[in-house]
């Protein structure tokens, strides 16, 4: 089956899931329920595309299909920001009640955190990516421990309110924040489209890309920042989904045979939409909201991550 046929099939499945989620078992007024559902679907589409895009380009510069931007500690930084706000200001502070202020603080903190890492740890002549990834994993673990420490000390009522922000959810998406996210992502996608050809060349490796005229180190820096912006925006909008990028990116690699990033990004984005919309449909109508989509994704993603590790280990052996 050709890649174009496979992409059409994925698009058709995604449309079916979107229509199913939008129209299935609407209770109450249609004029009220349907726009609410479409708002959630739009948030899922935006989040899925952002995570898929950022993961694909991140894996291109790391030349490793197991690593994702979350390994840099960006999800942990989001948790740190929210925990610090609740710990020092409380759930009734302006930093929590003002959705724009909370959204902006989370994005700025995550992007600045990533830029500081890239600025002070990036070295072009000493395998910068792997060094950066190692530091990112250490810092992510450190931030996670710091968050746990603060959560032990925080007031129990504040802690319960905080938990709602630390797990990804599509049921309480704010329309105003969604529009801002769409604007940010459109700008990021325009820039990403302009460098799509360079990404194909960079997948050949540093030496080959430089021989073909690519400013490899400069492009790596730009792609890392682009990836951080995409992940920061999606995380600030709905919350962290740790293993989701790992799942959709590797499924795209297995389902679509191509070296072109445009094909894999489109494929991973469609798989993301199918997984998020279909998963949320199951959560609402099958599990009756007794669990969250992020819990299911992290459970499946953890198993898939172990499978990929074992697969890479056997391949290396």
General description of the model:
There is one protein chain. The chain is an all-alpha fold and 317 residues long. The chain has a single domain (3-310), classed as ABC transporter involved in vitamin B12 uptake, BtuC (Orthogonal Bundle). It is 79% helix and 0% strand. The protein contains 14 helices and no strands. Helix 1 packs antiparallel against helix 2 (30-62), helix 1 (3-23) packs parallel to helix 13 (261-285) and helix 2 (30-62) packs across helix 12 (244-255). The longest helix has 33 residues, at 30-62. The protein is globular, with a radius of gyration of 20 Å. The model has no long low-confidence stretch (mean pLDDT 83).
Could you name the key traits of this structure?
mainly alpha, ABC transporter involved in vitamin B12 uptake, BtuC, 14 helices, globular, 317 residues, single chain
Structural class: mainly alpha
Q: What is the number of independent domains?
A: 1
Overall pLDDT: 83
Spatial shape: globular
CATH topology: ABC transporter involved in vitamin B12 uptake, BtuC
Strand content: under 5%
The termini sit apart by 32 Å
Broad CATH class = Mainly Alpha
Sheet with most strands: none
Q: CATH superfamily assignment?
A: ABC transporter involved in vitamin B12 uptake, BtuC
Low-confidence runs: none
User: What is the number of beta strands?
Assistant: 0
Number of helix segments? 14
Rg, nearest Å: 20 Å
Can you name the CATH architecture?
A: Orthogonal Bundle
N-to-C order of helices and strands: HHHHHHHHHHHHHH
Helix content: over 70%
């Amino acid at each position: 089956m050709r890649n174009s046929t496979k992409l059409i099939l994925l698009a058709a499945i995604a449309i079916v899931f979107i229509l199913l989620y939008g129209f299935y078992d609407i209770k109450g007024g249609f004029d009220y329920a349907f726009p609410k559902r479409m708002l959630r679907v739009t948030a899922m589409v935006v989040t899925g595309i952002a995570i898929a895009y950022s993961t694909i380009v991140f894996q291109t510069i790391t030349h490793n299909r197991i690593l994702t931007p979350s390994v840099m500690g960006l999800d942990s930084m989001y948790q740190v920001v929210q925990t610090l706000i609740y710990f020092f200001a409380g759930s009734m502070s302006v930093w929590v009640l003002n959705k724009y202020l909370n959204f902006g603080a989370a994005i700025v903190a995550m992007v600045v955190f990533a830029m500081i890492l890239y600025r002070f740890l990036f070295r072009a002549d000493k395998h910068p990516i792997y060094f950066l990834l190692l530091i990112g994993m250490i810092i992510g673990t450190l931030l996670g421990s710091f968050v746990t420490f603060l959560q032990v000390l925080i007031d129990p009522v504040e802690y319960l309110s905080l938990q709602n922000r630390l797990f990804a959810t599509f049921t309480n998406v704010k329309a105003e924040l969604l529009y801002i996210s769409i604007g940010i992502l459109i700008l990021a996608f325009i820039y990403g489209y302009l460098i799509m050809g360079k990404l194909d060349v960079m997948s050949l490796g540093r030496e080959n890309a430089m021989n073909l005229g690519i400013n490899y180190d400069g492009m790596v820096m730009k792609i890392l920042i682009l990836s951080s912006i995409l992940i920061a925006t999606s995380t600030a909008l709905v919350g962290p989904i740790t293993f989701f990028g790992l799942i959709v990116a590797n499924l795209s690699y297995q389902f679509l045979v191509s070296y072109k990033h445009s094909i894999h990004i489109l494929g991973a984005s469609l798989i993301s939409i199918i997984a998020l919309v279909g998963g949320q449909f199951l959560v609402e109508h099958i599990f009756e909201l007794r669990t969250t989509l992020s819990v299911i994704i992290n459970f499946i993603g953890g198993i898939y991550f172990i499978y990929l590790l074992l697969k890479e280990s056997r391949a290396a052996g």
